[in-house]
Design brief:
By secondary structure, the chain is of the alpha+beta class. The strands form 2 sheets. It has a 3-stranded antiparallel sheet with strand order 4-3-5. The protein has a two-stranded antiparallel sheet with strand order 1-2. Helix 2 crosses helix 3 and helix 2 packs antiparallel against helix 4. The longest helix is centred in the last third of the chain and has 17 residues. It is rod-shaped and about 85 Å long. The two termini are 50 Å apart. It binds L-tyrosinamide (TYC).
């Protein structure tokens, strides 16, 4: 017996349900006949690590400039940007967003480049989101 539509249907369903689990078709021989069975296997995949992008407070960067940074690079509304800026101002740091590694690196680079172009010492860093 080489084909089994029912088993193939089960295989398809399982693969769509959980991407970190998979099924493998195996041929089992018994004395009387060959048959196909589905054997569950686990591939140990992990979701990619995520990184927080943080702004750090300083005494020189104007509040208005920080608000523009949050609107421009973190897609925040004026109200949300003002809220986050004040949190950084009062508490020393604040989270701008959580991203995959490449996106976080890009945001940090963009913010620092923009700040230096305007001669502001604004610091922006990333750290793994535990
Ligand atoms: N502390 C700055 C000031 O009083 C404002 C500021 C806010 C600077 C947030 C940096 O990430 C920052 N002008």
């Amino acid at each position: 017996m080489l084909t089994c539509p029912l088993m193939l249907a089960t295989l398809t369903t399982t693969i769509h349900r959980q991407s970190h689990e998979s099924t493998r078709i195996c041929r089992m021989s018994t004395q009387k006949h060959d048959e196909l069975v589905l054997e569950e296997t686990r591939t140990h995949t992990r979701p990619p690590p995520l990184y927080k992008v943080l702004l750090l407070n300083d005494d020189f960067t104007p509040m208005e400039f920080v608000v523009v940074v949050l609107e421009r690079y973190f897609a925040m509304s004026l109200e949300r940007a003002a809220q986050v800026m004040l949190q950084v101002h009062h508490e020393g740091m604040g989270v701008c967003g959580v991203y995959t590694r490449d996106v976080a690196v890009t945001k940090v680079t963009q913010v620092i480049t923009y700040a230096r172009q305007h001669q502001h010492p604004l610091a922006c860093v990333m750290e793994e989101n535990e």
